[in-house]
Amino acid sequence: MKQLIADFKNGLWKENPIIVLVIGMCPTLAVTNTAVNGLAMGLATSFVLISSEIVISLIKKLIPNDVRIPSYILIIATFVTFTDYFLKAFFPDIAASLSLFIPLIVVNCLILGRQEAFASKNPVHRSIADAVGMGLGFTWVLVALSIFRELLGMGSVFGIQLLGSWYQPMIIMILPAGAFISLGILIGVMNVISSREG
Amino acid sequence: MNKNIGKLVMTLTIIGIISALSLAFVYEWTTPYIEKHAAKARESGIFEVVPEAESYEEVTKNGIKFYEGYKSGQRVGVALIEEGPGFQGMIKLMVGANPANGEIYGIKILEHEETPGLGANITTDSYKSNFEGKPFGEYDVIKRETSDPYQVEAIAGATISSEKVTRIVEDAVDKIQNAYGGGN
Questions:
Q1: B63 touches chain A (CB under 8 A)
Q2: Interchain pair A82, B118: CB under 8 A
Q3: Of B27, B31, B117, which is closest to A171 when you measure between CB atoms?
Q4: Distance of CA B35 to the CA centre of its chain
Q5: Domain parsing of chain A, residue ranges
Q6: Is the Cβ–Cβ distance between B182 and B164 less than 8 Å?
Q7: Does residue B22 belong to any structural domain of this protein?
Q8: What are phi and psi of A72, to 5 degrees?
């Protein structure tokens, strides 16, 4: 049980995929312009990560080593396509605003990386703990980044206008440059916190 | 290695078959919902760009699909979906017009991938209202207030998006004019 909690907490902070491992940068920089997008992207990626880690840790002994990468990609692509259809059918607005970035989850290195580093070496229950931790770790950073960018760039959070008409939106914050700036600030702040704890 | 190759092929084939089968089920399950959303978006678009219409009919003319809006049996306008390149991706929009007096009723952006906060403002009423009541023809995009009906006021910081939308609207108007006449 202790092991499971350690596996789970690993992704939240100590080996957080975005701020410590710095992987999965494409969606991190591209879709965090509004809080809704950030949250939806985080949850979609978590779903794919959790389901594929479960399947892969279950069938890892059946897959010959030489074809493990193509097998993983096939399994990941299946779950991503499922997510794509599901969002289009039940959350058409979110699907429209994330558009191309949902299919691109297939090539998010966070997902393939966790299969190689964790699911292919560990039993199912530990893989689930790892996937949930990594997924939540990815999601909370995306949400934090996108709240920061949406607030400064549009004066709103989750589409609710918080800052009044006196506020002149900093449009750069919702453009790609704003993503780099806010990610840099976030990683810097996290490093300060970690070094104090350390 | 050669002995193994059969096993490798088998593994990938089996995974591929299982993936394809499960996706076929998901596809069957979600397609009706996806089509319903598309149809609903199209329908609300038609009533938005041909505001007087109470019912509509799909008509194909010159190989192009038009939506004719009717009010108590009278044709009050025509809507058409037109697509073209924007600043980033494709822009898909609907134009409603009245061929009888050669004027545009209004437009509605159906799909776009323009920059949020800048180009994405093509979906705002203040930009779309540019096209309301415009006579058929070619339009100039300008960066100040418009002074004649053939001008469109660009969105600040998004001149290219404004320009592209205007071109798509011109194409749509062209097609309506070819099929229904109207204007000059």
A1: no
A2: no
A3: B117
A4: 16
A5: 2-197
A6: no
A7: no
A8: -60, -45
Residue B82 lies in a domain: yes
- Shortest CB distance from B19 goes to which of A78, A86, A100? A78
Q: What is the pLDDT along chain B (184 residues), one digit of tens a residue?
A: 566 888 899 999 999 999 999 999 999 999 999 999 988 888 888 999 998 888 888 888 888 889 999 988 888 889 999 999 999 888 999 999 998 888 899 999 988 888 777 888 898 888 998 898 889 888 989 888 888 888 898 988 889 999 999 999 999 999 998 888 765 4
Domain membership flag for residue B103: yes
Q: CB distance from B117 to chain A under 8 Å? A: yes
Cβ-based contacts of A88 with chain B (< 8 Å): 30, 33-34, 37
Residue B10 domain flag:
no
What domain range includes position B144? Answer: 47-180
Taking the model in full, what pTM does it have?
A: 0.80
* A93 to chain B: closest CA residue: B37
Of the partner residues B8, B19, B30, the one whose CB lies closest to the CB of residue A66: B8
Nearest residue of chain A to residue B32 (CA atoms): A89
What does the alpha-carbon distance between residue B97 and residue B169 come to, in Å, rounded to a whole number? 11
- Is A45:A110 a contact under the CB 8 Å cutoff? yes
Picking from B145, B95, B152, the residue whose alpha carbon sits closest to that of residue B127 is B152
The ipTM of this complex is 0.81
What distance in Å separates residue A38's CA from the closest CA in chain B? 14
Pairing of strands A160-161, B103-111: unpaired
